Amino acid sequence: MNSEGVGEAAFIPGNPKAEDRLLPPEMDVDAELRKVVSLRACCTLRLFVPIRGRPAPQAKWSKGDGEPIERATIDSTSSYTSLVIENVNRFDSGKYNLTIENSSGSKTVTVQVRVLDTPSAPQNLKITSVTNEAVTLTWDPPMNDGGVKIKNYIVEKRESTRKAYATVKANCHNTSFTVDQLLEGCNYYFRVLAENEYGIGLPIETPESVKVSEKPQPPGKITLKDVTKNSVTLSWEKPEHDGGSRVGCYVVEIQPKGVDKWTQATIVKDTEATISGLNAGEEYMFRVAAKNEKGTSDPRQIGPTIAWTKDGAPLKFTTRVNIHNTTTHTTLSIKEAASDDIGMYTITATNSAGK
What is the pTM of this model? Predict the structure, then answer.
């Protein structure tokens, strides 16, 4: 059209279709969200991201490897999406994934969040050793350190008859500790807590109480009470120490002469046993071990026992002072003898017939 009028029309070829123009989804991620978002525990986490695209994209938030976010309040429109978590704690740390999608495509961004809090509980608390006065504990660091380095661990104990824990070690810098000076025969619970600059974290506790005991000492003197052509009756004294746990039974073993292997003859609860089914005229050796809930003692063998004393006191064995006993000899060896070795040495040999 001009001042003279309207000219001839030009026709558009084909049949145009009226529809919205498609735009792939886009998001405007703030520079602060591209860094690690750090905030203190009990604060509110707010993640706000403008979005665009045609048609309007759908927004989806997830955490870590796709797990849902349970405590979050999520608000999404055609122009933005936001995630809000109030009163955050250590478990709200991690990666937050935002995916926006429409028919033209999808886009994902990850925001790293660190909540500065006390640590979570240590992992895998184990008891590696128990004696009649000490227990050794080991553990792994917490899965979540609270966003800062673990300073130390706190080790606590509780007698099974009490409700309150007592601190044993307040500044343990290793992931293992031996709790000593425990009462023999008592049951204890133990727990460990990690500490960082924000405070003391959650505890991990032994699920069951631990009895402070160990395997017993060997039984005392063994006496041959009776012998027949096909049986032997033995008696013995209780161990000097039961290891802190009652001796439940005794294991009697037998070894025929000329045979290297010991075999179990019987298990009894009393300090006497009769072993039958023996061959007349054949020689046998016997030994007895005590057993409690922690294990089996070293065996005590029937026959002579040898004891060395110096000036009436038991001789102390060291790397310099050694004693070697066989069935026919006892030998005392002192390397680099000195004036401290002067004295009266006494050998005492004892068997079932006398001393």
Answer: 0.62
